Amino acid sequence: xxHAHPGRRSRGGTAAVSHLDPQVFATYLERTRWFGGKxxxxxVTDVSTIGTLPGEPPLVVVHLVEVTYADGSDGGEAGVxxxxxxxxxxxxxxxxxxxxxxxxWEDPDHGWVHAYDALHDREAMAxxxxxxxDAAESPDGTMSSDGLVFHRLPGHDLxxxxxxxxxxxxxxxxxxxxxxDALMKVFRKVTPGRxxxxxxxxxxxxxxxxHVAHLYGWLETVQDGEPVQLAMLQQFLRTATDGWELAxxxxxxxYADLDVHAHDSGGxxxxxxxxxxxxxxxxxxxxxxxxxxxxxxxxxxRELADAMVGRLEAAAAVVPELAEHxxxxxxxxxxxAGLGDLDVQQVHGDLHLGQTLRTSIGWKIVDFEGExxxxxxxxxxxxxxxxxxxxxxxxxxxxPRVVQRSLGIEDGPDxxxxxxxxxxxxxRNKNHFLTAYAGGGLSAEQQTLLDAYVADKAxxxxxxxxxxxxxxxxxxxxxxxxxGAP
Length: 486
Ligand SMILES: Nc1ncnc2c1ncn2[C@@H]1O[C@H](COP(=O)(O)OP(=O)(O)O)[C@@H](O)[C@H]1O
Ligand SMILES: O=P(O)(O)O[C@H]1O[C@H](CO)[C@@H](O[C@H]2O[C@H](CO)[C@@H](O)[C@H](O)[C@H]2O)[C@H](O)[C@H]1O
Fold this sequence. Notes:
By secondary structure, this protein is an alpha+beta fold. The chain folds into two domains: 1-236, no CATH class; 241-482, Aminoglycoside phosphotransferase (APH), C-terminal lobe (Aminoglycoside 3'-phosphotransferase, Chain: A, domain 2), CATH 3.90.1200.10. Helix content is 38%, strand content 22%. The protein has helices at residues 22-31, 122-137, 196-206, 243-255, 270-290, 299-318, 326-337, 376-379, 386-407, 415-438, 444-468, 474-482, and strands at 42-52, 59-69, 80-90, 101-107, 111-117, 142-145, 148-152, 164-166, 174-178, 182-186, 189-190, 215-223, 226-235, 241-242, 294-296, 342-344, 356-359, 362-365. Strands 6-7-12-13-10-9-8 form a seven-stranded antiparallel β-sheet. Strands 1, 2, 3, 4, 5 and 11 form a six-stranded antiparallel β-sheet that branches. The protein has a three-stranded antiparallel β-sheet with strand order 14-17-18. α5 runs parallel beside α10 (415-438), α6 (299-318) runs parallel beside α11 (444-468) and α9 crosses α11 (444-468). The N and C termini lie far apart (52 Å). 42% of the residues are buried. The protein binds adenosine-5'-diphosphate (ADP) and ligand LMANGFYV. Residues 170, 172, 244, 350, 352-354, 367, 371-372, 394-395, 398, 461, 464 line the site of ligand LMANGFYV. Adenosine-5'-diphosphate binds next to β10 and β13.
Protein backbone atom coordinates (compact mmCIF):
# COMPACT_ATOMS: atom_id res chain seq x y z
CA UNK A 1 0.00 0.00 0.00
CA UNK A 2 1.35 3.40 -0.92
CA HIS A 3 0.92 6.14 1.64
CA ALA A 4 0.73 9.77 0.67
CA HIS A 5 3.11 12.22 2.31
CA PRO A 6 1.66 13.42 5.60
CA GLY A 7 2.19 17.05 4.66
CA ARG A 8 4.35 19.67 6.28
CA ARG A 9 3.49 22.07 9.00
CA SER A 10 3.36 25.58 7.61
CA ARG A 11 5.89 28.01 9.10
CA GLY A 12 5.69 31.77 8.81
CA GLY A 13 5.83 32.80 5.17
CA THR A 14 7.01 29.48 3.69
CA ALA A 15 5.23 27.20 1.32
CA ALA A 16 3.53 24.25 2.95
CA VAL A 17 4.35 21.20 0.89
CA SER A 18 1.99 18.30 0.74
CA HIS A 19 1.04 15.35 -1.43
CA LEU A 20 4.57 14.25 -2.32
CA ASP A 21 3.99 11.47 -4.81
CA PRO A 22 5.88 8.25 -3.84
CA GLN A 23 6.32 7.43 -7.53
CA VAL A 24 8.38 10.59 -7.97
CA PHE A 25 10.78 9.35 -5.29
CA ALA A 26 10.91 5.91 -6.93
CA THR A 27 11.92 7.50 -10.23
CA TYR A 28 14.55 9.62 -8.51
CA LEU A 29 16.08 6.70 -6.59
CA GLU A 30 16.71 4.84 -9.84
CA ARG A 31 18.78 7.76 -11.13
CA THR A 32 21.09 7.93 -8.14
CA ARG A 33 24.42 6.14 -7.59
CA TRP A 34 23.57 5.50 -3.94
CA PHE A 35 20.33 3.55 -4.29
CA GLY A 36 21.20 -0.07 -3.51
CA GLY A 37 18.01 -1.73 -4.80
CA LYS A 38 18.67 -1.61 -8.53
CA UNK A 39 17.52 -4.72 -10.36
CA UNK A 40 15.06 -5.70 -7.60
CA UNK A 41 11.31 -5.24 -7.90
CA UNK A 42 10.13 -2.80 -5.24
CA UNK A 43 7.58 -0.17 -4.27
CA VAL A 44 8.10 3.05 -2.40
CA THR A 45 5.69 2.24 0.42
CA ASP A 46 6.08 5.33 2.57
CA VAL A 47 7.58 8.79 2.45
CA SER A 48 7.79 10.48 5.82
CA THR A 49 9.06 13.86 6.92
CA ILE A 50 11.50 13.74 9.81
CA GLY A 51 12.40 17.39 10.16
CA THR A 52 12.97 20.77 8.63
CA LEU A 53 16.41 22.38 8.67
CA PRO A 54 16.47 25.47 10.87
CA GLY A 55 16.70 28.76 8.96
CA GLU A 56 15.80 29.47 5.36
CA PRO A 57 15.52 30.12 2.45
CA PRO A 58 15.26 27.66 0.91
CA LEU A 59 12.89 25.44 2.79
CA VAL A 60 14.76 22.17 3.35
CA VAL A 61 12.89 19.11 4.54
CA VAL A 62 14.50 15.78 5.38
CA HIS A 63 12.50 12.79 4.14
CA LEU A 64 12.80 9.10 4.80
CA VAL A 65 11.73 7.01 1.84
CA GLU A 66 10.67 3.47 2.67
CA VAL A 67 11.38 0.92 -0.05
CA THR A 68 9.72 -2.50 0.16
CA TYR A 69 11.06 -5.26 -2.07
CA ALA A 70 8.81 -7.77 -3.78
CA ASP A 71 11.31 -10.58 -3.02
CA GLY A 72 11.00 -9.82 0.70
CA SER A 73 14.20 -10.54 2.61
CA ASP A 74 15.24 -13.42 0.34
CA GLY A 75 18.87 -13.65 -0.73
CA GLY A 76 20.17 -12.27 2.56
CA GLU A 77 19.03 -8.79 1.60
CA ALA A 78 16.68 -6.65 3.63
CA GLY A 79 13.01 -6.71 2.62
CA VAL A 80 12.53 -3.07 3.61
CA UNK A 81 15.06 -0.24 3.45
CA UNK A 82 14.95 3.40 4.43
CA UNK A 83 16.66 6.04 2.31
CA UNK A 84 17.29 9.61 3.37
CA UNK A 85 16.32 12.25 0.81
CA UNK A 86 16.63 15.88 1.94
CA UNK A 87 14.74 18.12 -0.47
CA UNK A 88 15.06 21.86 -1.08
CA UNK A 89 11.76 23.44 -2.10
CA UNK A 90 11.41 26.46 -4.34
CA UNK A 91 8.25 28.15 -5.51
CA UNK A 92 9.75 28.73 -8.97
CA UNK A 93 12.02 26.49 -11.03
CA UNK A 94 15.75 26.95 -10.24
CA UNK A 95 17.63 26.40 -13.48
CA UNK A 96 21.00 26.09 -11.70
CA UNK A 97 19.60 22.95 -10.04
CA UNK A 98 18.12 21.30 -13.12
CA UNK A 99 20.43 18.28 -12.70
CA UNK A 100 19.10 17.71 -9.16
CA UNK A 101 15.42 18.08 -9.97
CA UNK A 102 13.30 15.53 -8.15
CA UNK A 103 9.75 16.59 -8.99
CA UNK A 104 7.08 19.19 -8.64
CA TRP A 105 3.76 19.16 -6.93
CA GLU A 106 0.67 21.27 -6.93
CA ASP A 107 0.21 22.38 -3.38
CA PRO A 108 -3.41 23.17 -2.42
CA ASP A 109 -2.37 26.42 -0.70
CA HIS A 110 0.60 27.63 -2.73
CA GLY A 111 0.28 26.34 -6.27
CA TRP A 112 3.30 24.57 -7.76
CA VAL A 113 6.36 23.80 -5.66
CA HIS A 114 9.62 22.54 -7.15
CA ALA A 115 11.72 20.01 -5.25
CA TYR A 116 15.47 19.46 -5.70
CA ASP A 117 17.93 17.09 -4.04
CA ALA A 118 19.20 19.51 -1.39
CA LEU A 119 22.75 18.17 -1.44
CA HIS A 120 23.36 19.81 -4.82
CA ASP A 121 22.19 23.17 -3.54
CA ARG A 122 24.72 25.52 -1.87
CA GLU A 123 21.96 27.62 -0.34
CA ALA A 124 20.45 24.55 1.26
CA MET A 125 23.76 23.08 2.43
CA ALA A 126 24.61 26.29 4.28
CA UNK A 127 21.70 25.51 6.63
CA UNK A 128 23.38 22.32 7.90
CA UNK A 129 26.66 24.15 8.44
CA UNK A 130 24.99 26.93 10.44
CA UNK A 131 23.06 24.45 12.54
CA UNK A 132 26.28 22.58 13.40
CA UNK A 133 27.86 25.89 14.32
CA ASP A 134 24.92 26.74 16.60
CA ALA A 135 25.34 23.38 18.34
CA ALA A 136 28.93 24.29 19.22
CA GLU A 137 27.65 27.40 21.01
CA SER A 138 25.47 25.43 23.40
CA PRO A 139 27.00 24.19 26.69
CA ASP A 140 26.33 20.50 25.94
CA GLY A 141 27.34 20.74 22.27
CA THR A 142 23.87 19.88 20.94
CA MET A 143 21.16 21.82 19.19
CA SER A 144 17.66 20.48 18.50
CA SER A 145 15.31 21.78 15.89
CA ASP A 146 12.08 20.27 14.57
CA GLY A 147 13.11 16.70 15.40
CA LEU A 148 16.69 17.07 14.16
CA VAL A 149 19.47 16.96 16.79
CA PHE A 150 22.88 18.40 15.88
CA HIS A 151 25.87 17.23 18.01
CA ARG A 152 29.31 18.84 18.07
CA LEU A 153 32.66 17.77 19.50
CA PRO A 154 34.87 20.55 20.87
CA GLY A 155 38.08 21.74 19.23
CA HIS A 156 37.25 23.17 15.81
CA ASP A 157 35.52 26.39 14.68
CA LEU A 158 33.65 25.91 11.43
CA UNK A 159 34.36 28.28 8.55
CA UNK A 160 30.86 29.55 7.78
CA UNK A 161 32.05 31.31 4.62
CA UNK A 162 33.16 28.04 3.06
CA UNK A 163 30.97 27.03 0.11
CA UNK A 164 29.64 23.53 -0.31
CA UNK A 165 30.23 21.20 -3.21
CA UNK A 166 28.96 17.67 -3.61
CA UNK A 167 31.46 14.88 -4.26
CA UNK A 168 30.86 13.03 -7.50
CA UNK A 169 32.85 9.82 -6.88
CA UNK A 170 31.83 6.19 -6.51
CA UNK A 171 29.92 6.37 -3.23
CA UNK A 172 27.15 4.58 -1.38
CA UNK A 173 26.36 7.77 0.57
CA UNK A 174 26.65 11.44 -0.41
CA UNK A 175 29.51 13.65 0.79
CA UNK A 176 29.57 17.42 0.65
CA UNK A 177 32.71 19.39 1.29
CA UNK A 178 32.66 22.87 2.78
CA UNK A 179 35.60 24.54 1.09
CA UNK A 180 38.77 23.12 2.63
CA ASP A 181 37.28 23.19 6.10
CA ALA A 182 34.91 20.29 6.65
CA LEU A 183 33.23 17.35 5.00
CA MET A 184 29.69 16.25 5.72
CA LYS A 185 28.67 12.72 4.83
CA VAL A 186 24.92 12.33 4.51
CA PHE A 187 24.01 8.70 5.07
CA ARG A 188 21.60 7.59 2.36
CA LYS A 189 20.51 4.17 3.58
CA VAL A 190 19.73 4.66 7.26
CA THR A 191 18.89 2.25 10.06
CA PRO A 192 17.79 2.93 13.63
CA GLY A 193 20.76 2.57 16.00
CA ARG A 194 24.29 3.96 16.29
CA UNK A 195 26.22 4.10 13.05
CA UNK A 196 29.75 2.65 13.55
CA UNK A 197 31.16 5.31 11.19
CA UNK A 198 30.31 7.90 13.85
CA UNK A 199 31.15 5.87 16.96
CA UNK A 200 34.52 4.68 15.60
CA UNK A 201 35.49 8.16 14.40
CA UNK A 202 34.49 9.59 17.77
CA UNK A 203 36.72 7.15 19.67
CA UNK A 204 39.66 7.42 17.27
CA UNK A 205 39.44 11.22 17.28
CA UNK A 206 39.48 11.26 21.08
CA UNK A 207 42.38 8.76 21.09
CA UNK A 208 44.39 11.14 18.86
CA UNK A 209 44.78 8.62 16.00
CA UNK A 210 46.83 10.07 13.14
CA HIS A 211 45.17 7.78 10.59
CA VAL A 212 41.62 9.19 10.54
CA ALA A 213 39.96 12.53 9.80
CA HIS A 214 38.84 14.14 13.07
CA LEU A 215 35.15 13.97 13.85
CA TYR A 216 33.51 17.42 14.27
CA GLY A 217 29.93 16.32 14.89
CA TRP A 218 26.88 14.42 13.71
CA LEU A 219 23.17 14.82 13.07
CA GLU A 220 20.50 12.45 14.26
CA THR A 221 16.80 12.15 14.89
CA VAL A 222 15.08 9.93 17.42
CA GLN A 223 12.38 7.50 16.36
CA ASP A 224 10.62 5.19 18.83
CA GLY A 225 13.31 5.97 21.40
CA GLU A 226 16.21 4.98 19.09
CA PRO A 227 18.62 7.33 17.32
CA VAL A 228 18.56 7.36 13.55
CA GLN A 229 21.88 8.87 12.54
CA LEU A 230 21.63 10.99 9.45
CA ALA A 231 24.95 12.70 8.81
CA MET A 232 28.51 13.05 10.06
CA LEU A 233 30.68 16.18 9.94
CA GLN A 234 34.44 15.75 9.93
CA GLN A 235 37.77 17.33 9.12
CA PHE A 236 38.33 17.82 5.40
CA LEU A 237 41.69 16.26 4.55
CA ARG A 238 42.90 18.97 2.22
CA THR A 239 46.09 17.37 0.95
CA ALA A 240 44.42 14.02 0.37
CA THR A 241 44.41 11.94 -2.77
CA ASP A 242 42.14 8.95 -2.99
CA GLY A 243 44.12 5.67 -2.72
CA TRP A 244 41.90 4.12 -5.38
CA GLU A 245 42.69 6.92 -7.86
CA LEU A 246 46.41 6.60 -7.10
CA ALA A 247 46.25 2.86 -7.72
CA UNK A 248 44.41 3.37 -11.03
CA UNK A 249 47.05 5.91 -12.10
CA UNK A 250 49.77 3.39 -11.28
CA UNK A 251 48.04 0.71 -13.39
CA UNK A 252 47.55 3.13 -16.28
CA UNK A 253 51.22 3.90 -16.26
CA UNK A 254 52.01 0.16 -16.33
CA TYR A 255 49.65 -0.41 -19.26
CA ALA A 256 51.25 2.45 -21.19
CA ASP A 257 54.17 0.14 -22.01
CA LEU A 258 53.35 -3.55 -21.75
CA ASP A 259 56.99 -4.53 -22.29
CA VAL A 260 57.86 -3.18 -18.84
CA HIS A 261 57.23 -5.38 -15.79
CA ALA A 262 55.29 -4.06 -12.79
CA HIS A 263 58.41 -3.78 -10.59
CA ASP A 264 60.21 -1.64 -13.23
CA SER A 265 57.24 0.59 -14.01
CA GLY A 266 57.66 4.31 -13.27
CA GLY A 267 54.29 4.37 -11.52
CA UNK A 268 55.11 1.48 -9.18
CA UNK A 269 52.74 1.46 -6.19
CA UNK A 270 54.55 -1.07 -3.98
CA UNK A 271 56.05 1.52 -1.58
CA UNK A 272 52.58 2.99 -0.99
CA UNK A 273 51.13 -0.51 -0.56
CA UNK A 274 53.67 -1.16 2.21
CA UNK A 275 52.88 2.13 3.93
CA UNK A 276 49.18 1.27 3.72
CA UNK A 277 49.86 -2.06 5.41
CA UNK A 278 51.66 -0.27 8.26
CA UNK A 279 48.82 2.26 8.61
CA UNK A 280 46.20 -0.49 8.85
CA UNK A 281 48.23 -2.30 11.50
CA UNK A 282 48.37 0.88 13.59
CA UNK A 283 44.63 1.50 13.20
CA UNK A 284 43.87 -2.07 14.24
CA UNK A 285 46.13 -1.65 17.29
CA UNK A 286 44.32 1.54 18.34
CA UNK A 287 40.90 -0.06 17.82
CA UNK A 288 42.04 -3.08 19.84
CA UNK A 289 43.02 -0.78 22.69
CA UNK A 290 39.82 1.30 22.79
CA UNK A 291 37.01 -1.16 21.92
CA UNK A 292 36.11 -4.53 23.43
CA UNK A 293 38.21 -7.38 21.99
CA UNK A 294 38.12 -11.07 22.80
CA UNK A 295 39.67 -14.44 22.03
CA UNK A 296 36.83 -16.79 21.10
CA UNK A 297 37.00 -20.56 21.54
CA UNK A 298 37.45 -22.90 18.56
CA UNK A 299 33.66 -23.26 18.19
CA UNK A 300 33.66 -19.66 16.92
CA UNK A 301 35.68 -20.75 13.88
CA ARG A 302 32.98 -23.30 13.03
CA GLU A 303 30.33 -20.59 13.40
CA LEU A 304 32.32 -18.27 11.18
CA ALA A 305 32.59 -20.95 8.49
CA ASP A 306 28.82 -21.56 8.73
CA ALA A 307 28.14 -17.84 8.43
CA MET A 308 30.29 -17.66 5.30
CA VAL A 309 28.44 -20.62 3.79
CA GLY A 310 25.15 -18.90 4.68
CA ARG A 311 26.27 -15.71 2.91
CA LEU A 312 27.32 -17.75 -0.11
CA GLU A 313 23.93 -19.45 -0.32
CA ALA A 314 22.13 -16.12 0.01
CA ALA A 315 24.37 -14.57 -2.63
CA ALA A 316 23.82 -17.47 -5.04
CA ALA A 317 20.09 -16.72 -4.89
CA VAL A 318 20.87 -13.24 -6.26
CA VAL A 319 23.78 -14.10 -8.58
CA PRO A 320 23.05 -17.45 -10.28
CA GLU A 321 26.56 -17.54 -11.84
CA LEU A 322 27.92 -18.34 -8.35
CA ALA A 323 26.32 -21.78 -8.40
CA GLU A 324 29.10 -23.42 -10.42
CA HIS A 325 31.74 -22.21 -7.93
CA UNK A 326 30.08 -23.11 -4.65
CA UNK A 327 32.00 -26.40 -4.18
CA UNK A 328 35.41 -24.71 -4.26
CA UNK A 329 34.25 -21.76 -2.16
CA UNK A 330 32.90 -24.12 0.48
CA UNK A 331 36.34 -25.75 0.54
CA UNK A 332 37.88 -22.41 1.61
CA UNK A 333 35.23 -21.99 4.34
CA UNK A 334 35.49 -25.58 5.60
CA UNK A 335 39.21 -25.06 6.22
CA UNK A 336 38.28 -22.26 8.65
CA ALA A 337 35.98 -24.59 10.59
CA GLY A 338 39.02 -26.62 11.70
CA LEU A 339 40.94 -23.65 13.13
CA GLY A 340 41.54 -22.97 16.82
CA ASP A 341 40.77 -19.82 18.85
CA LEU A 342 39.59 -16.76 16.97
CA ASP A 343 40.62 -13.19 17.88
CA VAL A 344 37.98 -10.56 17.25
CA GLN A 345 37.87 -6.81 17.81
CA GLN A 346 36.44 -3.63 16.30
CA VAL A 347 37.50 -3.49 12.64
CA HIS A 348 36.79 -1.30 9.64
CA GLY A 349 34.45 -3.84 8.08
CA ASP A 350 34.51 -2.78 4.41
CA LEU A 351 38.07 -1.76 3.67
CA HIS A 352 39.17 -1.14 0.10
CA LEU A 353 41.45 1.34 -1.67
CA GLY A 354 38.58 3.83 -2.03
CA GLN A 355 38.55 4.08 1.78
CA THR A 356 42.16 5.19 1.96
CA LEU A 357 43.52 8.67 1.43
CA ARG A 358 47.15 9.60 0.92
CA THR A 359 47.88 12.92 2.60
CA SER A 360 51.18 14.78 2.84
CA ILE A 361 51.63 13.26 6.29
CA GLY A 362 50.69 9.68 5.49
CA TRP A 363 47.72 7.39 4.84
CA LYS A 364 44.31 7.98 6.39
CA ILE A 365 41.45 5.51 6.50
CA VAL A 366 37.82 6.62 6.10
CA ASP A 367 34.32 5.17 6.27
CA PHE A 368 34.00 2.82 9.25
CA GLU A 369 30.37 2.05 8.47
CA GLY A 370 30.95 -1.57 7.41
CA GLU A 371 29.38 -3.22 4.38
CA UNK A 372 26.29 -1.22 3.39
CA UNK A 373 24.24 -4.34 2.66
CA UNK A 374 24.71 -5.86 6.15
CA UNK A 375 22.18 -5.25 8.92
CA UNK A 376 23.41 -2.64 11.41
CA UNK A 377 23.39 -5.10 14.33
CA UNK A 378 25.87 -7.28 12.45
CA UNK A 379 28.04 -4.32 11.44
CA UNK A 380 28.37 -3.28 15.10
CA UNK A 381 29.85 -6.62 16.18
CA UNK A 382 33.57 -7.29 16.72
CA UNK A 383 35.13 -9.17 13.82
CA UNK A 384 38.47 -10.55 12.68
CA UNK A 385 41.05 -7.98 11.51
CA UNK A 386 41.72 -10.35 8.59
CA UNK A 387 38.40 -9.21 7.12
CA UNK A 388 39.95 -5.78 6.53
CA UNK A 389 43.16 -7.23 5.14
CA UNK A 390 41.12 -9.35 2.71
CA UNK A 391 39.17 -6.26 1.60
CA UNK A 392 42.41 -4.55 0.62
CA UNK A 393 43.67 -7.60 -1.25
CA UNK A 394 40.45 -7.69 -3.27
CA UNK A 395 40.91 -4.03 -4.10
CA UNK A 396 44.40 -4.65 -5.49
CA UNK A 397 42.73 -7.22 -7.73
CA UNK A 398 39.99 -4.80 -8.85
CA UNK A 399 42.26 -1.93 -9.91
CA PRO A 400 43.84 -3.52 -13.04
CA ARG A 401 40.47 -4.91 -14.15
CA VAL A 402 38.77 -1.55 -13.84
CA VAL A 403 41.49 0.16 -15.88
CA GLN A 404 41.19 -2.51 -18.59
CA ARG A 405 37.47 -1.82 -18.78
CA SER A 406 37.82 1.95 -18.81
CA LEU A 407 40.36 1.76 -21.64
CA GLY A 408 38.27 -0.87 -23.46
CA ILE A 409 41.36 -3.02 -23.95
CA GLU A 410 40.46 -6.24 -22.14
CA ASP A 411 39.64 -8.10 -25.38
CA GLY A 412 42.24 -6.45 -27.63
CA PRO A 413 45.24 -8.04 -29.39
CA ASP A 414 47.43 -7.72 -26.26
CA UNK A 415 44.89 -9.44 -24.01
CA UNK A 416 47.29 -12.14 -22.83
CA UNK A 417 50.16 -9.81 -22.01
CA UNK A 418 47.72 -7.42 -20.37
CA UNK A 419 46.45 -10.18 -18.11
CA UNK A 420 50.03 -11.05 -17.15
CA UNK A 421 50.77 -7.45 -16.21
CA UNK A 422 47.47 -7.20 -14.32
CA UNK A 423 48.40 -10.20 -12.22
CA UNK A 424 51.93 -8.96 -11.64
CA UNK A 425 50.64 -5.60 -10.46
CA UNK A 426 48.03 -7.14 -8.16
CA UNK A 427 50.40 -9.76 -6.69
CA ARG A 428 53.23 -7.30 -6.12
CA ASN A 429 51.04 -4.83 -4.24
CA LYS A 430 49.22 -7.50 -2.27
CA ASN A 431 52.56 -8.93 -1.11
CA HIS A 432 53.97 -5.58 -0.08
CA PHE A 433 50.78 -4.63 1.75
CA LEU A 434 50.54 -7.96 3.54
CA THR A 435 54.18 -8.18 4.56
CA ALA A 436 54.07 -4.67 6.03
CA TYR A 437 50.79 -5.38 7.83
CA ALA A 438 51.88 -8.69 9.34
CA GLY A 439 55.53 -7.73 9.85
CA GLY A 440 56.63 -10.83 7.90
CA GLY A 441 55.07 -14.03 6.58
CA LEU A 442 51.72 -15.44 7.75
CA SER A 443 51.22 -18.59 9.80
CA ALA A 444 49.24 -21.40 8.13
CA GLU A 445 46.23 -20.54 10.34
CA GLN A 446 46.37 -16.87 9.40
CA GLN A 447 46.60 -17.75 5.71
CA THR A 448 43.56 -20.05 5.95
CA LEU A 449 41.53 -17.34 7.64
CA LEU A 450 42.67 -14.72 5.14
CA ASP A 451 41.84 -16.95 2.14
CA ALA A 452 38.34 -17.53 3.49
CA TYR A 453 37.78 -13.79 4.06
CA VAL A 454 39.01 -13.05 0.53
CA ALA A 455 36.48 -15.58 -0.84
CA ASP A 456 33.73 -14.16 1.38
CA LYS A 457 34.48 -10.63 0.16
CA ALA A 458 34.50 -11.63 -3.52
CA UNK A 459 31.11 -13.31 -3.04
CA UNK A 460 29.78 -10.17 -1.34
CA UNK A 461 31.07 -8.09 -4.26
CA UNK A 462 29.12 -10.14 -6.81
CA UNK A 463 25.92 -9.10 -5.01
CA UNK A 464 27.11 -5.51 -4.49
CA UNK A 465 27.91 -5.11 -8.18
CA UNK A 466 24.64 -6.74 -9.28
CA UNK A 467 22.72 -4.28 -7.14
CA UNK A 468 24.77 -1.16 -7.74
CA UNK A 469 26.89 -1.43 -10.92
CA UNK A 470 25.58 -4.46 -12.80
CA UNK A 471 28.09 -4.06 -15.66
CA UNK A 472 30.98 -4.65 -13.19
CA UNK A 473 29.83 -8.00 -11.83
CA UNK A 474 32.32 -9.81 -14.11
CA UNK A 475 35.20 -8.46 -11.97
CA UNK A 476 34.40 -10.36 -8.75
CA UNK A 477 33.06 -13.32 -10.74
CA UNK A 478 36.44 -13.67 -12.42
CA UNK A 479 38.08 -13.77 -8.98
CA UNK A 480 35.56 -16.27 -7.61
CA UNK A 481 36.28 -18.57 -10.54
CA UNK A 482 39.95 -18.72 -9.52
CA UNK A 483 39.43 -19.47 -5.82
CA GLY A 484 40.54 -23.00 -5.01
CA ALA A 485 40.98 -23.76 -8.72
CA PRO A 486 43.79 -26.19 -9.54
N1 LIG B 1 37.75 13.57 5.60
C1 LIG B 1 37.87 13.52 4.27
N2 LIG B 1 38.54 14.47 3.59
C2 LIG B 1 38.63 14.42 2.23
N3 LIG B 1 38.07 13.47 1.48
C3 LIG B 1 37.38 12.50 2.10
C4 LIG B 1 37.26 12.47 3.53
N4 LIG B 1 36.52 11.38 3.88
C5 LIG B 1 36.21 10.75 2.74
N5 LIG B 1 36.73 11.41 1.66
C6 LIG B 1 36.57 11.05 0.25
O1 LIG B 1 35.20 10.79 0.03
C7 LIG B 1 35.02 9.50 -0.56
C8 LIG B 1 33.76 8.89 -0.03
O2 LIG B 1 33.84 8.76 1.38
P1 LIG B 1 33.28 7.48 2.12
O3 LIG B 1 33.32 7.76 3.57
O4 LIG B 1 34.00 6.27 1.64
O5 LIG B 1 31.78 7.45 1.59
P2 LIG B 1 30.78 6.22 1.27
O6 LIG B 1 30.37 5.63 2.59
O7 LIG B 1 29.64 6.87 0.58
O8 LIG B 1 31.50 5.26 0.38
C9 LIG B 1 36.28 8.72 -0.20
O9 LIG B 1 36.62 7.79 -1.17
C10 LIG B 1 37.33 9.80 -0.10
O10 LIG B 1 37.94 9.97 -1.37
O1 LIG C 1 32.61 2.48 -0.14
P1 LIG C 1 31.45 1.72 0.39
O2 LIG C 1 31.49 1.50 1.86
O3 LIG C 1 30.15 2.24 -0.05
O4 LIG C 1 31.65 0.25 -0.22
C1 LIG C 1 30.84 -0.31 -1.23
O5 LIG C 1 31.17 0.28 -2.48
C2 LIG C 1 32.50 -0.02 -2.97
C3 LIG C 1 32.64 0.66 -4.33
O6 LIG C 1 32.52 2.04 -4.21
C4 LIG C 1 32.70 -1.53 -3.09
O7 LIG C 1 34.07 -1.77 -3.45
C5 LIG C 1 34.29 -2.58 -4.59
O8 LIG C 1 34.68 -1.72 -5.66
C6 LIG C 1 35.90 -1.01 -5.43
C7 LIG C 1 36.18 -0.21 -6.70
O9 LIG C 1 35.17 0.76 -6.89
C8 LIG C 1 37.06 -1.97 -5.15
O10 LIG C 1 38.25 -1.25 -4.86
C9 LIG C 1 36.70 -2.86 -3.97
O11 LIG C 1 37.74 -3.81 -3.77
C10 LIG C 1 35.39 -3.58 -4.25
O12 LIG C 1 34.99 -4.33 -3.11
C11 LIG C 1 32.47 -2.16 -1.73
O13 LIG C 1 32.61 -3.57 -1.86
C12 LIG C 1 31.04 -1.81 -1.27
O14 LIG C 1 30.80 -2.34 0.00
